[in-house]
Amino acid sequence: MPWIICFLIAFGLSLTSCGTAVKGQEASKMANDSLIDPQLIFDGKTIEKSEAEWQNQLTELEYKILRQKGTERAFTGALLDNKKTGTYCCKACALPLFKSAHKFDSGSGWPSFWDIFDPKNIEAQEEYGWTGKQIEIHCPRCKSHLGHVFDDGPKPTGLRYCINSACLQFVEQKK
Ligand SMILES: [Zn+2]
After folding, report:
1. What is the mean pLDDT of residues 112-132?
2. pLDDT at position 3, please?
3. Active-site residue 162, yes or no?
4. Which residues sit opposite 136 in a β-bridge?
5. Centroid of ligand 1 to alpha carbon of 95 (angstroms)
6. Where is the MsrB domain (predicted)?
7. Disulfide: which of 69, 77, 97, 155 matches 145 by Cβ 3.0-4.6 Å?
8. What is the pLDDT of residues 4-39, one digit of tens each?
9. Average pLDDT value for the chain
10. Are 127 and 166 in contact (CB under 8 A)?
């Protein structure tokens, strides 16, 4: 019965090619995630991942802050004193969030900005903490927590975006 053998071989080959195609798609998806575009304005396409995927991608501290609304200890963030020119992007999905031109030393111990990269690239939400009503801010694309915004910042906005350094990745502007 050689036709059965032929069929089995053909069936086996089609399974193998299917497997290869899926693997290829996964690889390109991961490559896209690591591509950073420092000019990108949020287009409404959200990124959703399982908790296991986030845990796999982020360090323990980043996961705790970004995905579980944690806060890093003051004066411990790697980007606190960064004075280079460039863009601060979301650590979880690379969406641009802040510009170096808007960074200032607030003395709080967390990276602070008086304005945002683009109104589309930040989402805010009122919440009640033990200090009263505050405004939590998060990334609109991956919904990761970033920090809070207060109204005691410098002119011209009067705002202070108080952001965990662990939530940011810095992309230096090429000269
Ligand atoms: Zn994000």
Report:
1. 93
2. 52
3. yes
4. 125, 148
5. 6
6. 51-173
7. 69
8. 444 444 444 444 333 333 333 333 334 444 568 888
9. 85
10. no
Assess contact for 162 and 106: CB atoms under 8 A: yes
Query: What distance in angstroms lies between residue 163's CA and the mean position of ligand 1's atoms?
Result: 13
Domain boundaries in the chain? 51-172
Per-residue tokens: 50: 């399982």
Q: Has domain 51-172 been given CATH number 2.170.150.20?
A: yes
Q: What is the pLDDT of residue 35?
A: 65
3-state secondary structure the chain: CHHHHHHHHHHHHHHHHHHHHHHHHHHHHHHHHHCCCCCCCCCCCCCCCCHHHHHHHCCHHHHHHHCCCCCCCCCCCCCCCCCCCEEEEECCCCCEEEEHHHEECCCCCCCEECCCCCHHHCEEEEEEECCEEEEEEECCCCCCEEEEEECCCCCCCCCEEEECHHHEEEEECCC
Q: Dig out the tokens for 78 from the structure.
A: 């790697």
Q: Are 76 and 119 in contact (CB under 8 A)?
A: no
Q: What percentage of the chain reaches a pLDDT higher than 70?
A: 80
Q: How confident is the model at residue 48 (pLDDT cuts 50, 70, 90)?
A: very high
- CA 46–ligand 1 middle distance (angstroms): 9
